[in-house]
Amino acid sequence: DITAIHITNVPVPAAVWLFGSGLVGLAGIASRRRQR
Question: How is the chain split into domains, by residue range?
Answer without folding.
Answer: 2-35
